[in-house]
Task: structure prediction
Amino acid sequence: MPARRLSPGNRRIDIMTQRERIYLFDTTLRDGAQTTGVDFSIDDKRRIARVLADIGVDYVEGGYPGANPMDTEFFASNPYDTGSIAPGAAPRFTAFGMTKRAGRSAANDPGFQAVLQSKTDAICLVAKAWDYHVRVALGITNEENIDGVTQSVEAIRASGRREAMIDCEHFFDGYKANRAYALAVAKAAYDAGARWVVLCDTNGGTLPHEVERIVADVTTVVPGTHLGIHTHNDTENAVANSLAAVRAGCRQIQGTLNGLGERCGNANLTSIIPTLLLKSEFADRFETRVTPERLVRLTQASRILDDLLNRAPNRHAPYVGEAAFATKAGIHASAILKEPETYEHVKPESVGNTRRVLVSDQAGKSNVIYELERLGIDVKRADPRISRLLDEIKDREAQGYSYESADASFELLARRTLGEVPKFFTVDSFRVMVERRHNAIGKQITVSEALVKVFIDGEPEPLWSVAEGNGPVNALDGALRKDLGRYQGFIKDVELVDYKVRILTGGTEAVTRVLVESRDNETGDRWTTVGVSPNIVDASFEALLDSINYKLMRAGATVG
Result:
């Protein structure tokens, strides 16, 4: 009897043979570091390496030993937190470098030797696979290039390294220009003993049908069990190209968390990994080191990386984005409450994400009820307050409010309608001044100053706070958070991390919507609030007030 298992689509699939192994190679710390605006510290690298180990990738490429002092230090010690990883379970730490230079022996090439002497489990070298680049970029003969590949792999093998890999740079463009030479480079690496021969779509211009056809041809000279794929996203096909390569025979996939990488990015492992595990075409044929228990850490891993980069997560990222399992239309929400599979291709919990039924002017009762349940608010469907809340939402959205991206403001609105939010404090007044003046060295500067008068619940005397900032909103934020009396301890680690303004109507009386994202640096929690007004400062202040009230409510602050 063949083994039987249940596919994600609840179909029974006969598995006649054992599943093949797919190996995952992460290059976030090397290729991902080439992303515009990304600059990892050594602590960032160590944290990301541990995150990747927790997910279960097979290889972590750490960078280029000897290229700079930080990478040299990074390669001097084990990057993983070995106390939390079982012996032998850590990814294979991999150094990146170039094949030896023409005209020099491997032993007499300082750059090659720096990589060779690194304390890693594997070495991945880049080699030219396009004869055009061999001639123009290297200025050597095709034969010298192949000889360099052979000698470099042999040197790694002779050093006692467990694995040698060759990234065949520009392979697909090289194949189209000169098939015989591109294949000769790949075969030379394999014949010399490379564990992996990686086919690189370096310029990112190859399409999935081309990848599948070319990889199938390469398997005639290099076994698929020794072939890898490395794609870039310049045509938005990096993930599709990687999966096409697997279909054609490749058994290693290279990519990065969140698709980091130069230009348009690399193949996004955050999308590839769950596809391999949750889609029957791949899940029934292949296995990885990523188990279902590890897969639930994927969303967290994606957001940890964004936090380290100090950037807002992509809300619309597949699988892990905040909107990946979000539904707005009322009719869809009703169906999801009955049968989630009607509008979800996988279970959000499988990747550590959550289902969200958005509340908007298109919402019905089902949307509101679902959101209340998600927030832990127990209200009967027939409760008249549900209708009042729905009417309030629609009235506010007509004024310009948007709660799709402002969960915290929605929760406050809902709980206030239900009578569950105490009034912690009241802002009696605020004032903002903006002054342009010359400083002590005669340079013209602009300074903003804000004054806020606050009454704390139960206190007879107001609190006055003054703060300066680099703009009126920054000054108001500083003044409001400067002294909230007995509530100050709850907000000491809260800071504003993102601020977005949208003009909703034209003219001098334009209505402005402001979204403020806040973060608690102690817990890592983030939340977004919204304010709307013809006055941008007033709209900003409303969002700031919601942010602080939300934190106090969630922290369990009490009045009186």
Observations:
- Residues 536-554 form the longest helix (19 residues).
- The radius of gyration is 28 Å.
- The CA atoms of residues 469 and 475 lie 4 Å apart.
- Residues 1-16 have pLDDT under 50 and may be disordered.
